[in-house]
Known about the structure:
Layout: E1 2-7, E2 10-13, E3 18-26, E4 30-39, E5 46-51, E6 55-57, E7 65-70, E8 75-80, E9 89-98, E10 106-109, E11 113-118
Parallel strand pairs: 2-11
Antiparallel strand pairs: 1-3, 3-8, 4-5, 4-9, 5-6, 7-8, 9-10, 9-11
Amino acid sequence: xxxxxxxxxxxxxxxxxxxxxxxxxxxxxxxxxxxxxxxxxxxxxxxxxxxxxxxxxxxxxxxxxxxxxxxxxxxxxxxxxxxxxxxxxxxxxxxxxxxxxxxxxxxxxxxxxxxxxxx
Length: 119
């Protein structure tokens, strides 16, 4: 069983910073990609940033957010600077990984962490 546990969400004023963390644990053979998605109130889940063979960012966060990974700890981080009210959302950690060497890649999600940016 694989678990993704997120931390670091909260309430911050516009212009402030937050750092999200997500640690993957359990049966993990290899991790292909880790990343962050978010779901603003009343909207669909959207990509924020992913880190695999390359790093990808949503246009709306480029230059403000930075994704990084600690592969030894199976952990991904999201440093969020210059936060805006429109960044308010539930942020979800995502990992695409092989639980064992004989299994294909599977997609896993964390439980989500709330980020609220006040104006």
